[in-house]
């Protein structure tokens, strides 16, 4: 379970950083079924596997924090293997619940900010932002959504499909380079986040030009997500450079293909951050 989860995270098979954090945390439950001769042996195995999960994607702050929370709460506090396993089980459940609760409350807070007839633009695939849109539509609001494809993996197509399944939401899928054309028709930009570290938002590549263009055109940018993704210290973001084959299937001699997964957006380009604790102005 742990090895499979590491491979899945490395392959970025899931686009939601919160879901990745939950899956990584739950993967540690595999250790509860293993036999250990001593509590020290259990703790060494916990440290080794927690480290492997964190290294699987060093760009995901929520994954890092979730796995680290389990690890720190268990090490050096148990007198027996059974006690260590019980602590681990309790922490896994607590961390997962905290993540899920944070997402639900952040989505609920964001849902209240939508207005009937609003047009917004979104980028990437954020389960929290999608939940907010769905809740707002269920409250009776009719919404129009412009969705960027999020190339080169076309993650936005999944977002558009999910929006199309929500009553009262009219989605429009567009190529990324058309953002300047359609932003002027939007009341605001609503996106999720991978994390915010210090004064920088890290999110799917394409977020920076979107936020900068929105600021130039006077369109507010709203970021929605769990407060667990806002990091003040103890985490150094590391970008991922994905396979060149996602950009060009067959390599061409003399061409260096660049495919970063994320870009860095100064928080000065953000107007609001909505988390489970409320709306935070920048």
UniProtKB/TrEMBL annotation:
Which Gene Ontology terms describe the biological processes this protein takes part in? L-methionine salvage from methylthioadenosine
One Pfam family matching this protein = IF-2B
Provide the coiled-coil residue spans.
Answer: none
Name one molecular function that GO assigns to this entry.
translation initiation factor activity
UniProt xrefs under InterPro entries: IF-2B-related, IF_2B-like_C, M1Pi_N, NagB/RpiA_transferase-like
Asked whether the UniProt record includes Protein biosynthesis among its keywords, one would answer yes
* UniProt entry keywords in alphabetical sequence: Initiation factor, Protein biosynthesis
Does Phosphoprotein count among this protein's keywords? no
Protein name stated in the entry: Translation initiation factor eIF-2B subunit delta
């Amino acid at each position: 379970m742990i090895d499979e989860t590491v491979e899945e995270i490395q392959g970025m098979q899931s686009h939601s950083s919160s879901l990745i954090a939950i899956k990584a945390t739950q993967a540690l439950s595999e250790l509860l079924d293993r036999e250990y001769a001593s509590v020290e042996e259990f703790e060494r195995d916990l440290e080794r596997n927690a480290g492997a999960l964190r290294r699987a994607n060093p760009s995901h702050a929520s994954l890092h924090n979730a796995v680290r929370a389990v690890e720190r709460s268990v090490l050096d506090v148990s007198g027996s293997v059974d006690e260590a396993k019980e602590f681990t089980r309790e922490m896994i459940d607590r961390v997962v619940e905290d993540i899920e609760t944070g997402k639900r409350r952040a989505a609920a807070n964001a849902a209240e900010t939508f207005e009937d007839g609003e047009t917004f633009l979104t980028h990437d695939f954020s389960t929290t932002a999608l939940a907010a849109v769905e809740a707002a539509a269920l409250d009776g609001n009719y919404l129009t959504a412009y969705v960027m494809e999020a190339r080169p993996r076309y993650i936005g197509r999944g977002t558009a499909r999910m929006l199309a399944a929500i009553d009262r939401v009219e989605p429009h899928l567009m190529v990324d380079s058309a953002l300047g054309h359609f932003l002027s028709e939007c009341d605001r930009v609503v996106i999720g986040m991978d994390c915010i570290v210090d004064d920088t938002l890290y999110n799917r590549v394409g977020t920076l030009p979107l936020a900068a263009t929105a600021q130039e055109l006077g369109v507010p940018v709203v970021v929605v997500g769990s407060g667990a993704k806002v990091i003040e210290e103890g985490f150094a973001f590391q970008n991922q450079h994905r396979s060149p084959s996602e950009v060009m299937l067959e390599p061409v001699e003399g061409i260096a293909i660049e495919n970063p997964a994320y870009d860095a957006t100064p928080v000065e380009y953000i107007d609001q951050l909505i988390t489970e604790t409320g709306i935070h102005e920048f």
